[in-house]
Write a structure and sequence with these properties.
Blueprint: H1 2-12, H2 16-25, E1 33-37, H3 43-50, E2 54-59, H4 62-72, H5 77-80, E3 83-87, H6 93-96, E4 102-108, H7 116-129, E5 130-140, H8 147-168, H9 178-184, E6 187-195, E7 200-207
Parallel strand pairs: 1-2, 1-4, 2-3, 4-5
Antiparallel strand pairs: 5-7, 6-7
């Protein structure tokens, strides 16, 4: 539900999503060119643009983008001029954004909404969109590492499925094997950091 997404996502992730985005913002400098895949209501890009970044946001959900555009009305013309919004499926990035044009690509809590084949199709496009030495940051709900943690996580998912759906109206699933999928797509995983008992993880990768 777009109008309450920003409020509820902080609650559902126990603040982990906010902390992950804070760490991503630390890598932004004036002139940094950012592509945000699944930009949603635009909270991250608005902050990035206020720090001088040149931002492109891609999302397939019109209601989410409408909230983003409403937010743009309340910021300065200077900040608005640094943001481009594209209504597009993430599977068609190569057709809508410049190849090799970004210093940073980000994605937050979007990959878990994608079927496996679509997820892999999105990831395979990313190396071609990154400049040399550029970074990819993914902040998402990832399947935990280790059998015991995986079992406990399955139990938590079963318990929280109904309230999660009532609050968000989405069918987000934890992404399994993200690090391996990134490697297969031609990216090198640099780090993974888990927040709030693994509710949200932040993965950093570069072109291999």
């Amino acid at each position: 539900i777009p109008e309450r997404y920003d409020r509820m996502i902080g609650f559902l992730t126990l603040g982990g999503h906010t902390e992950a985005q804070r760490l991503m913002l630390e890598h932004i400098h004036p002139g940094t060119r950012i592509l945000d895949i699944g930009c949603g209501t635009g909270t991250f890009l608005l902050e990035a643009a206020s720090r001088g970044a040149i931002c492109v946001g891609v999302d397939a959900a019109v209601p989410m983008l409408n909230v983003f555009r409403k937010k743009l009305e309340s910021v300065s013309e200077e900040v608005r001029s640094r943001i481009t919004i594209i209504h597009q499926s993430a599977t068609l990035l190569e057709k809508s954004v410049p190849q090799g044009g970004f210093d940073m690509i980000t994605s937050s809590l979007m990959l878990g909404e994608l079927p496996t084949l679509v997820l892999d199709a999105v990831l395979k496009q990313i190396p071609g969109l990154l400049r040399p030495e550029a970074r990819l940051f993914i902040a998402d709900e990832l399947w935990p590492q280790g059998k015991l943690r995986g079992f406990l996580y399955s139990f938590i998912l079963a318990v929280t499925f109904v309230p999660n759906f009532i609050l968000t109206r989405t069918m987000i699933r934890p992404v399994k094997g993200l690090e391996e999928r990134l490697e297969r797509a031609g990216l090198r995983v640099v780090s993974r950091r888990d927040f709030t008992l693994g509710v949200v993880s932040l993965v950093e990768a570069t072109k291999r």
